[in-house]
Amino acid sequence: MKALKGFKDIIPGEVETWQFIEQTARSIFHRFTFSEIKVPVLEKTKLFTRSIGETTDIVEKEMYTFPDRNGSSLTMRPEGTAPVLRAYIENGLHAVKPVQKLYTIGPMFRHERPQKGRLRQFHQMSVEVLGEDNPLLDAEVMAMAWQIMKELGLTASLEINSLGCKECRPDFNRALLDFLDKANGLCDDCVRRRETNPLRVLDCKSSNCQEQYVQAPSILDFLCGGCDEHFKAVKNGLDMLSVPYKVNSFMVRGLDYYTRTTFELVTSDLGAQSAVGAGGRYDGLVKQLGGPDVPGIGFAMGVERLALLLDQLGKGVHSNGIDLFIAALGPEAQKKAFVLMNVLRGKGLSVSMDLMDRSLKNQMKQAGKAEASYVLIVGEQELANGEAVLRNMETHDQHQIAIKEAVKMWHEDLATFFATETTK
Ligand code: ATP
Ligand code: MG
User: Fold this and answer.
1) In the chain, is it the N or the C terminus that has fewer CB atoms within a 10 Å radius of its CB?
2) What is the signed CA dihedral for 112, 118, 121, 123, rounded to 10 degrees?
């Protein structure tokens, strides 16, 4: 039996990089005063069709949608914003705090063609801020994404754009349609998008279409006064925080709910999967989903792509290491070591040992694999004298020491314990 295509196990040796990514992000989310929210992976289909948009690639081609046993249509979440907003509304979180800063980490599901950095079950760390429309917040949120990259030791470039609002976007749509009337040789998808959702053409992955769209009108020339001012203030905010960015007026993002600011963190190191994170403002979406009329902004970063980047740079983490490996030789030593291991674990150390009477050589190998900081070698003879050999695995120094002393190094009261145990 094999896992489904595009679904991947994250095994020991790989999972440590994931933990590093997640711990780094959690620490930064905390510093930026975000609270965690956990939401289900399964939702009613209409939550996504309504928010992401009926004529987006995600809804048209990528969702895992199926009837529940009672016939209602359910969807494995393809993204996190809609479920978090549903939860925000359902739990009345707007009444708890005027501004809610939320983050969630977990799997998303999209039926795409699996390739490097593109899975069918992938993982996002995503954030949403609800209840604040100050453009400084847009800059703050991007600065947070930037900080995550920085603390992971990764570089990407931040591209930003504004998609305007319902006041000014129709003007741009008209100009875009005029332009598309004159374009020829567009792919079938774009011909269809022209009718259903013209803005979506700019997100087309076909190089022939992309070559033509270089000449397309820029949405930034069509922003209304409010949107123009907002965008200027966002750029100003990024300057204030010394976060470098590039304006990319062709970036439209694949979801319909975005208004005004959109952004992507792009890298040239992942081939076609160039976006490691993306997001934007979605004023109006909470209301559209049946909640209060509060503005919102958010982004999501892809954990797989971050892990790939770290591995490519040799910055992946493959082991968490343990504090101590106890190599016991002989049945008596093993019994003592077994008890000692449990007590030390209770005191906060990560400790391991072998229970199969393997040779010292083999046990040392295990200690090396476990990346133990120290090995305590307990032989029958030494044990009789209350002694053992403590080896520092980094410096390779080793000393014959009283077990009492060895234990003291980690914890005072263990010394007493071990002293009485060994003199019995
Ligand atoms: P792409 O253009 O690469 O398809 P997207 O615009 O569909 O990305 P978003 O919906 O904005 O991506 O999701 C945010 C982030 O989630 C992406 O920047 C990426 O890191 C990650 N991501 C999206 N889809 C996948 C996938 N199928 N496999 C792995 N990571 C993904
Ligand atoms: Mg996509």
Assistant:
1) N
2) -140
**Widest CA span in the chain:** 94
Q: How far is the CA of 22 from the centre of ligand 1 (A)?
A: 17
What digits encode the pLDDT tens for the residues 259-274?
A: 999 999 999 888 888 8
Q: Is the pLDDT of residue 276 over 90?
A: yes
68 lies in the same domain as 45: yes
The verdict on 278 and 343 lying in the same domain is no
The residue that leads in pLDDT, 328 or 407, is 328
Q: Ligand 1 atom 29: the closest Cα is on which residue?
A: 118
Whether 104 has a pLDDT exceeding 70, the answer reads yes
Element (H, E) at 331: helix 331-346
Q: Do 344 and 411 share a structural domain?
A: yes
Q: φ and ψ at 256, to 5 degrees?
A: -75, -15
Q: Are residues 305 and 390 in the same domain?
A: no
pLDDT of 294-307, one tens digit each?
A: 999 999 999 999 99
Q: Name residues contacting ligand 1 (CB within 6 A).
A: 79, 110, 112, 117-119, 122, 124, 254, 273, 275-278, 300, 302, 304-305
